[in-house]
């Protein structure tokens, strides 16, 4: 089905109350009007509107495998030697490669989505409803956006494996696996249903926090190395923590709901009545918002602790001393190893 609505004047960004009132009204109306909703309609809609080739699926698995090999190669040839050269503490040297790898990837991926949104003809950031203008089922995906999707989709495929088998396990690692699965589902289905325009906007609004997070963590590791203390790295880690906290709220809890969710809940039906899988995609996006709120609670705890003491610990980390406590050692739980700069983000 083609989109009957072409470009119109740019709408001002709504507030939270307008988002809640209009989105709930539109979604309730869409649910009431959907007489034939059910498994049969979903199956027919899936077969009629999902477009993805075996070549694209093969490229996804190949690139996911490639990311894993590239990470292993960089870890052995660059990140671990660098940690040894910096004479990091053993516990920091063990986790430094993970942060270095993620910093490299997210800097690259966010730079590319920033280029697409601000240095090309795409107007999705300044005019979010335009993501649905001239939408057609099975429409071709521009090559530059398809490249971004292949990079991001395959990376999250790799990340599901990496979180379980390569990364340090943390209190929210299970949530991270769920997050990666939801993100991969959003990337895959939005590509297949040609909702790639809104997908680029979602990726842009999330990846910036991962850059700040990994930058902060690296400086936490580097501030105490070789038996010395380095003030510059301490200042950079504190600056990164403040920047991370502010942009998390601004990008994920302000721009994301008011730009993306308003467009997908309200503007989508204005441009494309009976848009395929309207409730499914919005449910995934709301799940992503809930996880952003969940992680923001960690950030609030972090800020409160910063106000109370000079040095704080990561509220997510498991104890290095868990095994010793199990055999009789009763060290306090506050002995966690890392600075609060470790607060992980939703990747994607």
Unreliably modeled segments = 1-6, 318-348
Mean pLDDT: 84
Note the beta-strand portion: under 5%
Shape: globular
Tally of strands? 2
Structural class: mainly alpha
What gap, in angstroms, lies between the N and C termini? Answer: 29 Å
Biggest beta sheet attributes: 2 strands, antiparallel
**Total domain count:** 1
Main β-sheet, spatial strand arrangement: 1-2
Order of H and E elements:
HHHHHHHEEHHH
H/I helix tally: 10
Helix amount, in percent?
A: 55-70%
Rg, Å, rounded: 22 Å
Keywords summarizing the entry:
348 residues, mainly alpha, two-stranded antiparallel sheet, globular, disordered N terminus, disordered C terminus
Describe the structure.
With 348 residues, this protein is mainly alpha-helical. It has one domain. Helix content is 68%, strand content 1%. It is built from ten helices and two strands. Strands 1-2 form a two-stranded antiparallel sheet. It is globular, with a radius of gyration of 22 Å.
Summarize the structure.
With 348 residues, the protein is mainly α.
Note the topology.
Blueprint: H1 16-33, H2 39-49, H3 54-85, H4 90-118, H5 143-165, H6 173-192, H7 196-222, E1 224-225, E2 228-229, H8 231-271, H9 278-308, H10 322-326
Antiparallel strand pairs: 1-2
Helix pairs in contact: 1-8, 3-4, 3-5, 4-5, 4-7, 5-6, 5-7, 6-9, 7-8, 8-9
